[in-house]
Write a structure and sequence with these properties.
2 helices, alpha+beta
């Protein structure tokens, strides 16, 4: 897991384990006081994913793209201010394949416990 330093709205390039290029584009929308993420590659495009404080924003696509994005915000809140990432109130992490495997095992174990 590697932290992505968001100092301003920007585009971050990622090359996954299959050597496919992806762009993560973070945008702040003042009208709704929130951050949004676009994920773009040659054959895969998703626009307008709301950036929330979750273990993997890209969970439903992680098997296809081979990585994920986690967001952690102080006090279990949501990133809602333009300066949240520059002040470190919110942090973004790139989840690599090993992180995804660990997450799957953890979620499976949680689901097993909940079903007892």
């Amino acid at each position: 897991m590697q932290q992505i330093e968001l100092t301003e709205q920007g585009t971050y390039n990622i090359i996954n384990s299959k050597q496919e290029n992806y762009q993560l584009v973070f945008n702040y929308n003042q009208a709704v006081q929130g951050w949004f993420l676009d994920l773009v590659s040659e054959n895969f495009k998703i626009y307008g994913i709301r950036v929330t404080s979750v273990p993997n924003i890209l969970k439903q696509w992680s098997d296809k793209i081979g990585f994920g994005v986690a967001v952690k915000c102080e006090q279990d809140s949501e990133p809602m201010f333009f300066e949240d990432f520059t002040t470190k109130r919110a942090r973004v992490y790139l989840l690599e394949p090993d992180d995804l495997i660990t997450q799957k095992v953890l979620w499976k174990n949680i689901n097993l416990i909940d079903n007892i």
